[in-house]
């Protein structure tokens, strides 16, 4: 069939439009389909530690874990953490700590986070300050060893049951890699630095974080989910010690303003670095998650969301005198007291003055998992698609 010159252009234009529509639909489908992660590998501090520091040193004491696990389960909470809700949301089991040698199953991932972990190595003792000897770069090295050794043993095991606790080698590139670290770098800086010194140190802290993300990319990580740091100035363990503060020291919600300013500055630099990494590591899907806004939104509107005032602590005793940490005994006003838990943890935001209750963690997780606080704004189930 022949077309006259007057009909060729409209037909070609129609075909071109159809092709563009089809291509656009394919691109939309690629970013709307679920990722079906076979595993999660997590890195961070006590906000996402499911038992690493407990396995390395001392187990958590009761009443930690009482709400969900009904026993101490390595978590600094009465129950589940945000990382637990992430795993559950994605249809995966809770993550076993890499450092825990008893009862661990790594088929669907591993948790390298440890309580007290920092981005930068600190010259402080865990026994004196709670700073973990497993900072982010060591956690990445643990992951490297885990990946290499698990692949070796997976290839050696001949019986299917012997492989049931090991990840499939091909699953590493399809897994979700989550990061929640930085709060302890700020806490350490508050102990040792002036605000000017901390401001000068922040670029190096963020750059060292970026270095580890690049290292994970070289090791095959592609879907990366990064939480910024929370409003550290709102932690009751610190705010309850403030007596007769000068004007402007606390914000309208009772949080230490300078500490939250430091957290927000860290987060600003972190987000800028994530944008740079996204352009640099074109094969990766890197998501920045504004957990700060979720946590501060809960703290600043506690009663509206069904919680008691945010300054309340469920487990332990904190005040102007000696702290009695959750599950421990101590001396207050000359008498020995026990730092037990409150009757209704579900109505309290802070578990022990530093960490959050399961109810608060669940509230925060529900807010961040849908992508409303993410850049790019994709829910976690679809955050494996690189944004062009």
TrEMBL record:
Which Gene3D superfamilies does this chain map to? Answer: SGNH hydrolase (3.40.50.1110)
Concerning Pfam families, the annotation shows:
Lipase_GDSL (PF00657)
GO MF terms here are: hydrolase activity, acting on ester bonds
Question: SUPFAM superfamilies from the xrefs?
Answer: SGNH hydrolase
Q: Where is the signal peptide?
A: 1-24
Q: Which residues cross the membrane?
A: none
The protein here is known as: GDSL esterase/lipase At5g14450
């Amino acid at each position: 069939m022949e077309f006259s010159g007057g009909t060729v252009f409209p037909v070609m234009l129609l075909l071109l439009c159809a092709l563009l529509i089809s291509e656009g639909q394919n691109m939309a489908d690629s970013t709307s389909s679920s990722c079906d992660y076979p595993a999660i590998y997590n890195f961070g501090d006590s906000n996402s530690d499911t038992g690493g520091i407990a396995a390395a040193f001392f187990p958590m004491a009761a009443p930690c874990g009482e709400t969900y696990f009904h026993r101490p389960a390595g978590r600094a909470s009465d129950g589940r953490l945000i990382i637990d809700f992430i795993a559950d949301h994605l249809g995966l089991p809770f993550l076993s700590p890499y450092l825990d040698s008893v009862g661990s199953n790594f088929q669907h991932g591993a948790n390298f986070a440890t309580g007290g972990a920092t981005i930068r190595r600190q010259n402080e003792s865990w026994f004196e300050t709670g700073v973990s000897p497993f900072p982010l770069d060591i956690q990445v090295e643990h992951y490297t060893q885990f990946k290499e050794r698990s692949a070796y043993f997976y290839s050696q095991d001949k019986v299917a049951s012997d492989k049931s606790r090991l990840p499939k080698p091909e699953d590493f590139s399809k897994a979700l890699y989550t990061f929640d670290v930085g709060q302890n770098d700020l806490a350490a800086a508050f102990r040792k630095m002036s605000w000017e010194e901390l401001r000068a140190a922040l670029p190096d802290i963020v750059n060292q974080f970026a270095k580890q993300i690049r290292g994970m990319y070289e090791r095959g990580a592609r879907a990366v989910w990064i939480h910024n740091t929370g409003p550290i100035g709102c932690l009751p363990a610190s705010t309850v010690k403030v007596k007769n503060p000068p004007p402007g020291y606390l914000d309208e919600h009772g949080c230490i303003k300078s500490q939250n300013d430091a957290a927000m500055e860290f987060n600003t630099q972190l987000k800028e670095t994530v944008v740079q990494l996204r352009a640099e590591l074109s094969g990766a899907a890197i998501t920045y998650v504004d957990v700060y806004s979720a946590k501060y939104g809960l703290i600043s509107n506690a009663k509206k969301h069904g919680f008691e005032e945010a300054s309340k602590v469920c487990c332990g005793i904190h005040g102007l005198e000696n702290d009695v940490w959750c599950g421990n005994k101590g001396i207050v006003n000359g008498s020995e007291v026990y730092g037990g838990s409150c009757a209704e943890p579900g109505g309290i935001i802070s578990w022990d003055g530093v960490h959050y209750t399961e109810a608060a963690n669940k509230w925060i997780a529900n807010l961040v998992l849908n992508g409303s606080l993410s850049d790019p704004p994709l829910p976690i189930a679809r955050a494996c698609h690189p944004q062009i």
